[in-house]
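Quick log. Single chain, no ligands specified.
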Amino acid sequence: MGMTTPPRTLAEALRARDDESLAGLLRARPDLLTPVPNDITQLATRAGTRASVVRALEHLDRFALQTAEALAVAPDPAPYETLLGLLTGDGRDDGEHRDDADAAIGDALPAALTTLREQALVWGEDDRLRLVRTARELLAPSPQHPSPTGLGPTVAEATAGMSPGRLQDILATAGLPATHDPVSAVTSLSALFTDRARMGELLDTAPAEALSVLDRLVWGPPYGEVTPNPTPPVKWLRDRGLLLPVSTRTVVLPREAALHLRAGRAHRVPEPQPPAVEAVANRDPQAVDSAAAGQAFLAVNTVEELLKNWNGGGPAILRSGGLSVRELKKTATALDVSEPVAAFWVELTYAAGLLASDGEADERYAPTPAYDDWAELTAQDRWVHLATTWLAATRTPGLVGGQDAKGRALSALGPDLDRSAAPEVRHRILALLAALQPGTAPDPETVLARLRWERPLRGASASAGDTTDLRSRIALWTLNESELLGITGRGALAAHTRALLGSGPAEAAALLAPLIPEPLDHVLLQADLTAVAPGPLERPLADMLSALADIESKGGATVYRFTPGSVRRALDAGQSAADLHAFLAAHSRTPVPQPLSYLIDDVARRHGHLRIGAASSYVRCDDEAVLNEILADRRSATLRLRRLAPTALAAQIDPASLLDGLREMGYAPAAESAEGDVLITRAGARRTPPRTAPVPVPEGPPVPDATLLGAAVRAIRAGDTAATVVRKDPADAPAAPSGSLPRTTSAETLATVQAAAMTGSALWIGYVNADGAASQRVIAPVRVEGGFVTAYDHTADEVRTYPLHRITGVAELADDATP
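-> predicted structure:
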């Protein structure tokens, strides 16, 4: 595929590439594959569209983008030396530091050009470098969109509408020979601004105030406003063409003059090398791993506690979707964290598929069936599931509390929290941390600086939105969330995270397991009606204890407190007093305190003494005195009770409200069924129907795999062969338009195909498939029978059978064009 002459178009440059290079282009710009181009010409056309070029530019690093920006203000085409000069300058401000910077630019420029060529943003040999037209339009200066370099239009562009008389006045004032040819006048003025010696002499005569005006414009923006009667310094500059009029009130510093004032540099500070990520502390790797493991264990417990709190049905869903501010505050209080941190845990649980809407009419959040499977895993495997979910999730909890583009509040679990850039930023942050020595905690500012270098803010995208600012915010959120989740410990990347990124989940879980404490099968009962869990508890013990007691404090040890309400909760779940005594005796390393035994017996004795059923509702009790006491209590007025019998009261509220009301009055009623049996309330019974975890929103088309790339390159090559093949046309046939299908009669088509099958030669055909899509193909017929031709299709690189009636026409290939 080599070429002996320089390419004249981007399509010719792409056609000269080998298959590996074309695959690299499609890998770097996967949007070009949707759908697969028919040939090289279509690929080149698609690579030059505005949307595709913008996407490609936004994925360049800072120096590659600076190289493209320099080419946008260079002559088209530009030799390599001109491009290098725009990045290093003309040497007028040389010094030791400048020499080092120029050497770094010279070393980095070939790699930057290679990147631009690989992505089809630049084509041509080094002596004729061309930036694709769309990129030049995006990066070139205009009054509406100033160039990222801060340079203005050339003298020729700025004087395009200027009268010849005004040009003559400028030439005379600048001391240049008069000419009546506008082109010669523009050339003469441009030559003055690019002549170092003559330009220096002109500026030596400039007033100091005029030089101050130039200093304000030289690095951009190059446009300034003037009054109808400009000041003497501005008038001096305007009369000599150093400021050229754009409109009646606007002037611009021409590019040639600005480059002279900049010592030939297109950028104030070229950045050929990425900034280094600096360390703020070097910590003991073992201490880092221990801290991260402790936080990982706390993360697992926090998610489990959140789901236990919502076991019986969580908060209601807003009409617009998501969690209300009030419910988020309640969740934060229950988890003993701040509201932003609570939003993070809620969003992570949702993204992991452990939490979802129940889909009922009164829609609420509840754990999914997947939660039960997750809860049965070991602590390290539960953490791996959470960590891998976080790495891939596009849900961005840091946005909660902010506003969308229309000024509406963004709520946790709401519909507008997906940001496709989040996974890429998280992976890049962790990759930067993984490149540091174990135990090294980076400076967040240097991490952000590195990310900005890798994805710089362009002038065009800056006015379109806060994309780059969002990436910086996601980076800061990533650093904070990494610490919360146990990805990092004390600011440094943990060993189990390095394994997760490199070796996979199994290795990460194996490294984390020894650092997580083993669950205990006992507690320490205290005389003050508390129990101390000196570490994590086994799941059955933790579940039972959470039903029997309330958590009072958490930390290295968890303190549970027994209250009448908590004991009643265990009895409501179907436990008897004997069961509770046996449970405590079996799992306590200290004797069961007498006050706790008395509390259980006292609540059990009164539990179920009152019975609540549906009348609307009723209360029945064998002890008439208790019912008399309830009726005499003023607090029962809201229950709207009336006596039906000596041992029964009726109420005009539902049983659940009646249960809650009597419990608030200090009684311990129990609900009963229509048959008179006590209803047992089991915690954690509510689950949503099976739900799948939310799918991350991809950032652009997915990167194709090697198989798809190989097939796409073969298809493009084959289509290009069919489109560019040289064919024989009958001498008397009219010239067919380029790219049109061949047209022959049915008899001519059949005769030509049969002859080719006998001689083994190739043909160029036009073909219309069953969907009506037309294409050009190069085939070598093998057999013709039954109205079909079986042939080797060079376009598809396989043997195919074509109905003869769908072939629009055939043409023989030229002798030197046979595939």
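Residues 422 and 531 are 43 Å apart (CA to CA).
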